[in-house]
Amino acid sequence: MSVLIYTESENGKLKKIAFEVASYAKQVANALGTTVTAVAVNTDDVTQLSTYGVDKVLKVTNEKLNTFNAKAYADILKQAASKEDSKVVVLSSSANDKFMAPILAVELGAGYVPNVVALPENTSPFQVKRTAFTNKAFAISEINTEIKLIGLSKNAFGIKESEGTAAVEDFTPTLDDADFSAKVTSQDKVTGKVTIADAEIVVSGGRGLKGPENWGMIEDLANVLGAATACSKPVSDMGWRPHGEHVGQTGKPVASNLYIAIGISGAIQHLAGINASKVKVVINNDPEAPFFKAADYGVVGDAFEVVPKLVEKLKEFKANNA
Ligand code: FAD
Fold first, then answer.
1. Residue of the nearest CA to atom 36 in ligand 1?
2. How much is the pLDDT for 190?
3. Environment class of 145 (CB within 10 Å of its CB; exposed 0-12, middle 13-18, buried 19+)
């Protein structure tokens, strides 16, 4: 009876969230007196999962699975759960995993709780804490089905190292044409840029930047930090930035370790999208801007003075610490 996890990867490389899901599952497994089995699809280096508590890896290799397919991936996990007699299955709360989880929940007859932020409060009854109302509240959910399906929020638990080794086993689940009845036929990805969803650091600009011609300094700051760029809704509505960068209730959610908001007032609809970010830094020339109430660090100042100086100092720091 192993705790089963799905480890997300991209171009053969495990994503950071895979290590967080593994770290979380290890502690759930410890509480239940069992082990952790990971499913890895078309992933090169799976042995590193042992560092985060995985005892066994079921390695699936199939070129039809090079692009994510919710139905096929759910079927793989269902077969893995049956093979491992898993009563707890842990995924992330990424867009792909949230697409797959309801299909898997139906196939397993499992109760599913997404956006989980902590280890189970109890394992009998099985109760987990999750966020609600776009991260403004918490709820305790009880799962009463035999199999429990958990979607862990990004950055909620962190990555924790464990000792041990992982046995790697090739796993060939049965997949048929029905699994691929809807499939991705082409992808048009932005290259060379960190996406908002995966970024550890996000630099975001608002209407306080006055116009698209001033975005150079936002990009400079993002480049020096290895960050993704984002913006408030009016900025994308006015066409200063692409809609894919708009953060908030009606835009993308951000769960980065660091969110730097420049010239953004901090309207409730914007904050709804960034509540899950760990450290929030605000640069705004109005000391009364509501964003300061939600900030961990605030700079009251003109962005056109503060940001170039920040870029300069960061470049200096990097040069001296290379
Ligand atoms: P403003 O409110 O105009 O704020 C600009 C800020 O820049 C001010 O605080 C100002 O002090 C500061 N500033 C000005 N000059 C400088 C300077 N030189 N240096 C430093 N700071 C400066 N908004 C979102 O962002 N995301 C959403 O998903 C979203 N969804 C919405 C959904 C609905 C149904 C509605 C009604 C609204 C939604 N909004 C959303 C809009 C939201 O209410 C705000 O209007 C919007 O977030 C404000 O954007 P802003 O902070 O960039 O602009």
1. 269
2. 62
3. middle
The answer to whether 44 and 61 are in contact (CB under 8 A) is no
Q: Which atom of ligand 1 is nearest to the CA of 248?
A: 28
User: What structural domains and CATH numbers belong to the chain?
Assistant: 2-180 (3.40.50.620), 201-320 (3.40.50.1220)
- Cβ–ligand 1 distance for 284 under 6 Å, the answer yes
Give the pLDDT confidence score for residue 183 in this predicted structure: 83
Q: Please tell me the predicted confidence (pLDDT) of residue 8.
A: 96
What does the block give as tokens for 2?
């192993």
- Angle at CA of residue 250, ends 287 and 7, nearest 5°: 105
- Weakly modelled stretches of the chain, pLDDT under 70: 189-193
Which pLDDT does position 192 carry in this prediction?
Answer: 60
* pLDDT of res. 187: 78
**Ligand 1 centre from 269 Cα, in Å?**
9
Testing ligand 1's pocket by substitution, the residue of 217, 218, 233 carrying the most ligand atoms inside 8 A of its CB is 233
- The predicted model scores a pTM of 0.75
